[in-house]
Amino acid sequence: MQDLPNLFLIGPMGAGKSTIGRLLAAELSRQFFDSDHAIQDRCGADIPWIFDVEGEQGFRLREIHMIDELTRLSPVVVATGGGAVLCEENRRALRERGTVVYLLTTVDQQLKRTAKDRNRPLLQCANREQVLNDMFAQRDPLYRATSDIAVRTDRRSPRAVVNEILRRVHRLVDPLEPSSSPHSAGPLNHNKVSQ
Fold first, then answer.
1. What is the CATH number of the domain that holds 22?
2. Does 2 reside within a domain?
3. Is 165 exposed, middle or buried (0-12, 13-18, 19+ CB in 10 A)?
4. Does a structural domain hold residue 35?
5. 84: domain range?
């Protein structure tokens, strides 16, 4: 069996990218990076401050540079910010430098998981549900177009999600690898979403 490529996690805020990314990295004995945390570490300020001072455009420019830098490392697991796919440079870097996993979750789950989080500038508004629905409508096609596989995270343990990602990535790397799972048999359709 071949070595696994870099793994890049994309998806909406609250999908579990950081939690699942840390578990994946530990399982694979790789370094883990969260692009949002790396941006904060680099500039010494939190994301709400960056948004306040530089605006979303300023943050996105920092994000382009950070994703370019992180995707050039190997072997790594990288969790991206929810809006990373808005920029074509990011989508290209992710697609060309590793396997991209779209972590899907419902808006309902996002609302629950981000309810007390004050570190998400785009959700500091009166109608968080509408904002999340609008972001999903805009970003879901970009997540799907960028990803190699898509995996649902709602109502599943992070460990179950990690196991499924590893099984499906192994199938991408070596389609003839024997598998004990009936769900991974047959050809892989990267647009197919696991339940």
1. 3.40.50.300
2. no
3. buried
4. yes
5. 7-194
Q: Quick check: is 117 in a domain?
A: yes
What burial class does residue 46 get, using C-beta atoms within 10 Å of its C-beta: 0-12 exposed, 13-18 middle, 19+ buried?
middle
Number of domains observed in the structure of the chain:
1
Q: Which two tokens stand for residue 157?
A: 């343990």
Can you give the pLDDT of all 195 residues of the chain as single tens digits? 358 899 999 999 889 999 999 999 999 999 999 999 999 999 999 988 898 899 889 999 999 999 999 999 999 999 999 999 999 999 999 999 999 999 999 888 877 766 565 665 555 666 778 888 898 999 999 999 999 999 999 989 999 999 999 999 999 888 776 654 434 333 334 444 555
Tell me the pTM.
Answer: 0.84
